[in-house]
């Protein structure tokens, strides 16, 4: 028993004319008769009675039609549900990032300009981001360091300078630049492990040749208050400092070690992009001045 047999049965049940139906379906009348006969053989009963030139359902046929109607109605419901889900999917962007420290302003601007698009963003490491892109489970990834894979396209969004932030009354507050090793005995404020920027600072401390005394490890949102209180010093991207109109601390350039924080934007090569994904990609390129 297959859907074609059920379709022909249903059509015949409602038309009650074998010849007219065969013309409508563009098949020969013998082919239609054979299809119905095979269905009746499988069920072990006749489904139609002949009354003159008409073919009408008998009691078995009426029982069977009720269930066949349910099958085709459910298939139609499924088709409509998939259509609606497809529409919703086309209005959604799924983004994986290795951190959110640099994304807040862009995300706010994107959502304000595209109120009908839903954005789902979550944290992953680079290996997970590559796997998710290749499986088609995410649309884009924004990562440090930029992703490298033969199946993935990546562009550099920006390279950020790492700055040293110290309290206004710090002994080095009159300096414009400094070697990080000079602060090896200072108390440091650091970001929690899941931030990709934490990987950057760990590498910088290692290059500077010391292990920092980290007195507080937490979210970036607390940095402003911590700097006002003079709890310690911190390494912060220049772009983050520039977000504050009146940052409550002194910012120094690092003479040594010099370090660039490089952020990449990635997607699967040859990926078919619906309009929503094209809009998101174009917004990223425009926001970060990518040619």
From TrEMBL:
Family: Belongs to the LysR transcriptional regulatory family.
GO molecular function: DNA binding; DNA-binding transcription factor activity
Keywords on record: DNA-binding, Transcription, Transcription regulation
UniProt-listed CDD domains: PBP2_LTTR_substrate
Keyword Transcription: yes
PANTHER family in the record: HTH-TYPE TRANSCRIPTIONAL REGULATOR BSDA (PTHR30419:SF28), HTH-TYPE TRANSCRIPTIONAL REGULATOR YBHD (PTHR30419)
Gene3D superfamilies: 3.40.190.290, Winged helix-like DNA-binding domain superfamily/Winged helix DNA-binding domain
Domain HTH lysR-type: 1-58
Keyword Transmembrane: no
Pfam family, one: LysR_substrate
GO cellular component: cytosol
Name of the featured protein: Transcriptional regulator
Natural source organism: Marinitoga piezophila (strain DSM 14283 / JCM 11233 / KA3)
InterPro entries membership: HTH-type_LysR_regulators, LysR_HTH_N, LysR_subst-bd, WH-like_DNA-bd_sf, WH_DNA-bd_sf
């Amino acid at each position: 028993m297959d859907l074609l047999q059920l379709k022909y049965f249903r059509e015949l049940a409602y038309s009650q004319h074998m010849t007219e139906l065969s013309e409508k379906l563009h098949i020969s009348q013998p082919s239609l008769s054979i299809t119905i006969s095979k269905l009746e053989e499988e069920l072990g009963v006749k489904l139609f009675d002949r009354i003159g030139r008409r073919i009408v359902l008998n009691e078995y046929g009426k029982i069977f039609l009720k269930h066949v109607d349910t099958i085709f109605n459910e298939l139609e419901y499924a088709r409509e549900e998939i259509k609606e889900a497809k529409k919703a999917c086309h209005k959604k962007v799924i983004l994986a990032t290795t951190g959110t420290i640099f994304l807040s302003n862009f995300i706010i601007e994107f959502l304000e300009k595209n109120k009908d698009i839903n954005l789902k963003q979550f944290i992953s490491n680079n290996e997970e981001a590559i796997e998710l892109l290749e499986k088609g489970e995410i649309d884009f990834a924004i990562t440090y360091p930029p992703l490298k894979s033969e199946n993935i396209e990546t562009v550099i969004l920006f390279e950020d300078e790492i700055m040293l932030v110290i309290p206004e009354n710090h002994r080095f507050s009159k300096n414009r630049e400094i070697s990080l090793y000079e602060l090896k005995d200072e108390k440091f404020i650091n970001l929690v492990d899941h931030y990709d920027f934490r990987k950057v600072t760990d590498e910088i401390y290692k290059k500077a040749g010391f292990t920092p005394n980290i007195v507080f490890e937490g979210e970036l949102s607390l940095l402003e208050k911590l700097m006002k209180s003079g709890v310690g010093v911190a390494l912060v991207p220049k772009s983050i400092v520039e977000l504050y109109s009146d940052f409550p601390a002194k910012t120094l350039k690092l003479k040594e070690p010099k370090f660039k924080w490089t952020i990449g934007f990635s997607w699967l090569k040859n990926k078919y992009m619906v309009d929503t994904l094209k809009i998101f990609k174009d917004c990223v390129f425009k926001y970060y001045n990518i040619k």
